[in-house]
Batch of 2 targets.
Target 1
Amino acid sequence: MSAATFLYKSDPARGRQWAEVFRRRAPEIDFRIWPDIGDPAQVRFLAAWEPPPDIAARFPALEVLFSSGAGVDQFDFTILPPALPVVRMVEPGIVRGMVEYVTHAVLDLHRDMPAYRRQQQEGLWQPLTVRPAGERRVGVLGLGSLGQAVLAQLVGLGFDCAGWSRSQHHVDGVQCHAGSEALQDFLARTDVLVCLLPLTDATRGFLDARLFSLLPRGASLVHVGRGPQLVEADLLAALASGQLAEAVLDVTDPEPLPQAHAFWRHPRIRLTPHIASMTQPLSAAEVVIDNLQRFERGEPMLGLVDRARGY
Ligand code: GLV
């Protein structure tokens, strides 16, 4: 690779771990951590969660923008040069984190832990029927690398698994549904719905009263997509009516969730502060260097964003 600056603009402590990997694997690259940008005209690659608003003017030689996270919905595409390749973070650490979080949430719901926590509060010793995993139908919205890895784990645990996405996919042991006309059948067979969709114009407000009404009564939601995909009032109404039994939310809108918000103290909602999964610096830097090598060879990069699609 010719003399080039790779600029990292995200958490500096994690950036120092990226720097270690670059020193070892790509010493020819001048790896810099924001705000130490060096000569802006040398910046060919930028990894950021939030790029600077003057990105186009400031870095005229920029060739690739890497998101430091799995999503790219935080980017304002209108300020990015139209032909600039944008790459999502697809790395083993973020995948493993998501598999752990969703598996934990699904097992917790499957084994009636919310009910046992309530019973404990009341001092109630009362066994509930234990159902085999094969009788629990889990459905995952979104069949990207995260959705597929989550499903592989849940299939391994014996759950009856299905997935839904806008285009047709194949995942071993999973009934895959594609497109809006297949959504109803997918929802009708889903006891635990996991949302792993990217945030786009098509998925904003996707988790609404109509969608909840198509699930079997008493289904549960695990939301690990993006806050704006959920219509909050519709979730509260579905929980109040019993259409939904429980909700596990790792994302809200806005984040952090305001103190007075009803979700905080709702007995059927469990909240975590957007920690389901996080980019792991060491494995992320390895994946980004692999992608830089693909880019220099003129091969397609993994996680390349299709701007028309929005992810
Ligand atoms: C977190 O939500 C991410 O996009 O990495």
Note: The radius of gyration is 21 Å.
Target 2
Amino acid sequence: MPDILITENIIGPAMDALRQRFDCAFEPDLWQQPDRLFALIPEFRALIVRNQTQVTRELVAAGAKLEIIGRAGVGLDNVDLGAASDHGTVVGFAPEQTTNSVAELALGLMLALARMIPAADRDTRQGNWNRHRFTGTEILGKTLGVVGFGRIGVSTATKARALGMDIVAYDPFVDPDGLNVMNLRARLGSLDEALAQADFVSCHLPLTNETRNLFDYDRFGQMKRSAYFINTSRGGVVNEDGLIRALREGLIAGAALDVRAQEPPAASALAEMDNVVMMPHVAAFTREAQARVVATVCRDVAAVLNGEAARNYANFSRPKK
Ligand code: NAD
């Protein structure tokens, strides 16, 4: 009986070891073929995905034997968690294994914007030597607005604090007397306050019905005209038309986007703007983070298939079916 279906390119020593122990179908392009995925899923006891496979209620229902869905990463917006719970299927994920890498990229993007590194690089490669055009701004003493003060938000704030930044944060679910708030001497306030005070706004929200399109033209209008916006969370939290209009009208100084509303994105005016930095959703793509993610998910899938408990789970540690 087949055990594990892998529908995206998830590789590494931990995956090699898993494939030796279990009967695995490695189908890295299957996320692009939903009909085939539906045809195959009823046979398998485990499904391993990244963020591109849409694990809908219908797919979970079709997976009659599914004991665990292993999500190689942290965002669960492509997995219907409620459906998995209703069908007694464990959802395993890697909640902390990418945190540091994403926070490091958020910081890198902040510096890239502040010192115009990509634009200066492009200009200098063309044979120019425009020193005054690339007069940047320091981050020392500036205020970082962290929207979503969870694992990645706190890690980004911790690094920014070490570089001499002040922290304002917006997260209605965080205890204002909690340790992270105290240690970072963060000012926890409303979104309006955070946007008004920040010199850099770094978004670390999950994509939910509440956060979709949260950053629209009006929100960007609440930021300082000198402020920069960085998004390493999910593209859907930004209304890209609103962002383009805000950049054109100078409502903010620039933006860095690791993630986009549609991935891969269609041609966009953003690509023509020198004060925009773009990455192809790679915040979690470091050798270290990927090794940790794959090891974590493979370990928990193996555990559940052996009748043991998962260690990192989003609903329950053992299947209820
Ligand atoms: P987390 O759950 O630890 O933190 C998210 C925080 O957002 C929580 O503290 C929560 O209280 C807060 N939040 C939720 N809804 C909110 C709302 N409506 N308004 C304000 N705050 C709200 O998650 P994390 O590990 O910090 O990851 C954050 C997100 O980063 C993930 O959901 C994922 O989508 C994204 N991510 C992206 C990459 C990448 O490659 N670019 C990699 C990893 C994670």
Note: The first strand starts at residue 4 and ends at 6.
